[in-house]
Design goal:
This protein has two domains: 247 residues, Rossmann fold; 215 residues, 2-Layer Sandwich (Nucleotidyltransferase, domain 5), CATH 3.30.420. The N and C termini lie far apart (72 Å). The chain contains 17 helices and 15 strands. Strand 6, helix 8 and strand 7 form a beta-alpha-beta unit. Helix 2 crosses helix 3, helix 2 packs antiparallel against helix 5 and helix 5 packs across helix 7. It is an alpha/beta fold.
Length: 528
């Protein structure tokens, strides 16, 4: 007996077929023409692109792209297979959104006209469902005129247009979502962050469906050689191919983003990250998480506690080991003696003899650490900090893991942060202790990027040095790795080799991640 669900599905197919016969094809053709015209094919078409965007109205107003030869070549390419390597905020996703919507509304697609199909399946894929929805869902709905939308099924991540085309907005963390039906067009954004088999095992078979026209696929994103070797290899194969159906495009963000923005990114991004994400260049960092840390450059002698400059205590909660990191924002002048020619002049440009080339002033000085290897707890870590720094007269800022440490101290005395604040206030005084712990932890990749940024930014400047006394932090910075096959997550085994790593570098990372988000919390007027 035919189920109700099957009957409804058949009825929907019949309605779709009937609706496809009655659509206003001329109106659709003109709409698609205007959408494509918003990407100017030549420099002389810039005014026409702006006029097209204004004619479309709504979301499209002000969205005409500035002419860029590589962007336009990629947009107007007829190739079945394309690989696009491009910098962040350089228009690679915007151009693909225009393509997706124009294809979904095109009444003259070969599948309709020559194969008699009443539907077209367009896959839009990102690394995760959440990422894909945030990047595409709302924009696609705004880009398509209301009169051209037949149905929106958010629970199924589908947008259906009056032509019968269905846009599937799917996370490729579960590529099975795109299996079991013909795929006519596929767009894989941030392909370097996906697993190689997303294409070869899950999507490619759908592009070879008998009775359907050949499908198209576009792989695009930044060329991360650490986690996305498969994307780099595919892009290189297209670049070297003589097949006109395989094409490769590359462009950077320079010349698209403002000069001021580029200069700021040079000052704030790790050098290798800038190469990949802004220049769309090839950079490899091996499997090290903190690839910008260089022990000969960044591990230095003679770092001390500067009286009166706020101390930062950073915590990560663990039983084995118990850890904390101590740091200050220091300047070159803090290491001058009265006999130094620059002493008291207010000029802080002369670095001490131990400073690596490129060290900026002020800089982060990691001056100490706590590392208790076995059966530690939060009070033990605090007692060690008080024993080492209890004579300090100044402000103490607390940073660290906002979760409070699930495996940490038993909660009979309150949370780990309750214990830390209580012990610190009892020793240093209420007015000296300031909690800087956020409501939630930053994403792990953001924290890792923040750590790399303090050791070297794209302008070859160094913003942090670590005392040679901090041997466990130095060990972490040299040995913590990225989990193989992940999208940048740290390798953190729960036991065995490597299980002792990552905790103390996590602690330091909480400080730098907080300051990466709020640059205004630099050392100004005694505030850390």
């Amino acid at each position: 007996m035919t189920s109700r669900a099957q009957l409804l599905k058949r009825l929907e197919a019949i309605e779709s077929s009937q609706a496809a016969d009655s659509i206003d094809r001329d109106r659709l053709r003109e709409t698609v023409r205007l959408m494509r015209a918003t990407v100017p094919p030549t420099a002389s078409d810039q005014d026409a692109a702006q006029a097209a965007a204004e004619s479309l109205g709504g979301w499209w107003e002000g969205q005409a792209q500035r002419f860029h030869d590589r962007q336009c070549a990629a947009f107007y390419s007829p190739a079945m297979f394309r690989a696009i390597e491009a910098g962040r905020r350089s228009g690679k996703s915007h151009g693909r959104k225009v393509e997706i919507v124009a294809k979904a509304l095109d009444p003259d697609w070969i599948g309709y006209t020559e194969h008699g199909l009443t539907f077209r399946n367009i896959i839009v894929g990102g690394p995760t469902q959440d990422q894909t929805m945030k990047l595409y869902w709302r924009d696609l709905l705004r880009m398509i005129p209301d009169w051209a939308i037949r149905a929106v099924r958010k629970s199924e991540y589908q947008i259906e247009t009056v032509t019968g085309a269905v846009i599937f907005v799917l996370g490729m963390d579960k590529p099975q979502r795109a299996e079991g039906f013909p795929v006519h067009d596929a767009y894989l954004d941030e392909y370097a962050d996906m697993k190689k088999e997303v294409w070869s095992e899950h999507l490619e078979p759908g592009l070879e469906t008998p009775g359907h026209p050949p499908g198209t696929v576009c792989f695009f994103g930044t060329p991360d050689m650490k986690s996305g070797e498969h994307f780099v290899e595919l892009a290189d194969s297209y670049a070297d191919s003589d097949d006109p159906e395989e094409q490769h495009f590359r462009w950077s963000s320079v010349g698209i983003l403002s000069e001021a923005r580029i200069e700021r990114l040079k000052r704030t991004m790790p050098k290798s990250q800038y190469t990949v994400q802004i220049l769309a260049g090839r950079a490899t960092t091996g499997n090290r998480a903190y690839f910008e840390f260089d022990k000969p450059s960044h591990s230095v002698p003679n770092l001390g506690v500067v009286p009166g400059v706020p101390l930062a205590f950073a915590f990560d909660f663990n039983v084995e080991p118990g850890v904390a990191v101590v740091m200050q924002r220091q300047t070159f002048e803090h290491y001058w003696s009265e006999s130094h020619p620059g002493f008291g002049s207010g000029v802080s440009r002369i670095a001490p003899d131990w400073a690596p080339e490129g060290l900026m002033s002020p800089f982060w000085a990691v001056i100490g650490e706590v590392y208790i290897p076995e059966e530690s707890n939060t009070p033990a870590v605090c007692r060690k900090l008080i024993a080492d720094y209890g004579g300090f007269d100044g402000k103490i800022y607390l940073y660290g893991d906002s979760t409070g440490g699930a495996r940490g101290t038993a909660k009979v005395d309150g949370s780990d942060w309750d214990i830390i604040e209580s012990m610190m206030v009892r020793h240093f005084g209420r007015s000296a202790v300031h909690n800087r712990v956020p409501a939630s932890n930053p994403p792990e990749r953001s924290r890792v990027n923040a750590v790399n940024s303090v050791f070297r930014t794209a302008d070859d400047r160094i913003h942090c040095v670590v005392s040679k006394r901090c041997r466990y932090l130095v060990r972490d910075l040299e040995r913590v790795t990225i989990k193989q096959g992940s999208a940048g997550e740290l390798h953190k085994p729960s036991k065995g080799p490597g299980s002792e790593l990552s905790h103390i570098s996590d602690a330091a990372g909480y400080v730098w991640a907080a300051h990466a988000e709020q640059k205004s919390k630099r050392l100004v007027g005694g505030r850390l």
